[in-house]
Amino acid sequence: MFLSMNWIEDFVDLNGLDKEQLIHQFSLSTAEVENEIFFKGSDLKGVVVAEIKSVENHPESKKLHLLKVDAGDSELTDVVCGAPNVRVGMKTAFAKVGAQIGEITIAPRPLAGYTSNGMCCSEAEIGISDDHSGIMEITDDVPNGTDIKDIYQIDDIIFEVDNKSLTNRPDLWGHYGIAREFASLAGRELKPIEVDDLTAYNNLPRIDMKIEDPLCQRYSCLQVENIKRNISPVNMRIRLYYCGMRGINFLADLTNYLMLEMGQPMHAFDSRKVEKIRIKRFDTPFTFKTLDGVDRNIDENTLMICNDNTPVAIAGIMGGLDSEIVDDTTTLTLESATFDPVSIRKSTVRLAHRTDASMRYEKSLDPEMTTVAIGRFVNLLKKYDSDIKVVSSLTDEYAFRYDTVTLDFDKKFVDRYTGINIDNETIVKTLTSLGFDVKLDNDNFSVVVPSWRATKDVTIKADIIEEITRIYGYDNFDINTTRSPLYPIRMDKVKSDEEKIKDMLVKRYNLHELHSYVWAYNDEQKELAIPVEENIKLANATNPNIETIRKSIIPTQLCQVNLNSSYAADFGIFEIGRVVDGLDENNLCVEKKNLAITLFSKSKDVKTLYFDLRDMLAIITDDLKHKELTFEITEKALAYQHPVNLNKIILEGKEIGIMGIVHPVVGKKIDKKAAIVFAEIDINMFASVENSSISYNEPSKFPAMNYDLSLELPQNMLYSTLKECWKNSGTEILKGTRIVDTYDTEDIHSMTIRFEFASNERTLSSKEVQDIMDEVINNLKNIGVNLRG
Fold this sequence. Notes:
The protein is α+β, with helices and mostly antiparallel strands. Helix content is 26%, strand content 29%.
């Protein structure tokens, strides 16, 4: 939000103060100010008021005119001008020879055979609006030759406040609220805002208005007629432009001006089109054309302002095209209202349309401001269009009131929280300058929070401490080391496992950790032929590409691999993130935390990469749980999964995840020559498995004996099936088995297994080892496994 120091100085006298320093102090104490401060008008010099004395058409151009202008000098000045609106007697902004406009210095210039000794300027050219349709017309009665900066507030300091820092401060969405902060920081008095006395119209007829829905907290309105002015005063247009708004017409500009001044959005209806105001919702959806000419879909949850049963505006967001103020409008019905902030926020999301008004309504505006804003509007309307006539009494319905917030505390409370001694007088002065009603009895304070801070901002005593200390200045605090007991806290089991897994994947396996959003990317997945799984969807999603919450992280990672496949021949990525698997019996999301790993390689074949991933998971499990993972073949369920090479990951008899190869169709879309494998594990299930205790065995002093078997296996037989054949054989001396080689062709599936025998009591004989192996070979034959010849 852009703010004008000229505007702020309407309400607080800052003469003699360093305004840049004040802005910096405001940033430290109240809201974050963006880095750049704009000094408007500083690059404009030598532009004066000039009157056009004669106009002749250029003999060789249909667009150019030859002018003689009176710029306050002893002689008239010859100027060549191409503006379409030039006429005799018109006063305009004239840049004399030697004038400075931005980086341009005006000099005599030959133009189509004639010399132009200066330039007649548009408002856009001198930087006070975006209107470049013609030269500026000055209607004020000022002498020719007067510097334009002497009659209009072109010199100004503009600074921008980060909107996010104002979220909890609805009172700061207008210049008057900002001026209150500057007054407190500078120790100056805040001037009361000038308003019209609306009680003078109490004897006039009321407007037919009724609130029919509790989402409207307060609705105030007034009717005014005999409005003759159509163009806003120059200074008003300048302020609007400097603060990021364009001029439209006098009435529309005045409502925008009030919104930027007081933070209270207002709307002016053409009274010819609004007679019976009703604030309500409709039972059935319909379309409604707003001021920007867009047809919007209105549902049964959107609050509408109606002329009886005909909608004329979306409450708190935007007016309707059919009731807008037009050039011939002379009678208006003025609206000043507050609405339920949550309702406005939801409506803007559903409509995908956020406006300056809705941004303010979302912040919980003070209902007490509606009538003040109308009083201010009438005051300014009379100031700039003195013939206007108020033809109704103030019609006001106050349906919802915020509770008055009173906070009681003592001096000890302030001292304990701040750690310094701030005297009672300073506390009272600070809070009073911010609008709080303070009563002091010895060292006991009773503070009534002003209505503009009580909607959601200041609610507890700690908030009062913040008000005192930020104005006092955090940089004025003594620097002291806090002495507080620190107790060690044991890390949560799941978090502990997460951190260890991350360390291993990064340090041992050189994987890259990524972080992604929780939704599925429809467009990106579609490119890879991966349909988005049906799941929970975001209500009123503004982007259909991200409306579905993901069930798995793997499709997200495949999209990430696709984006990065050209940057490296081999890489791996992982993420520990959230997924949602439908709803539970209470209609709440079943949220899970998963570990997802995807490996990509152009140098390794898919089998090698697959076993690299298997070993990675096995080693992590062994290091963290001291237990062994097992794998079981499972059937393909999703488009990105390989129809054959897909396995369940099992730990302690629980299925904790899945590991597989990417489907060839998906793989080819990423890279035809690359191998891609993936795994996904439920972190909570993994962490729930208890660690096995580590046992240590004394190594045998007698020589060990190894025995290798080369076996031919039926297709798809797993190593875990083979292990059953020696589970009960030679348990005292068979210390372990492991795969030392595999060999596969289209017809043969072969595996070499090494059996390791040892005894702590004696040297083993060949016969006792052979007896055990004979038993194992016999068991293998019973399941169709033969020795390879």
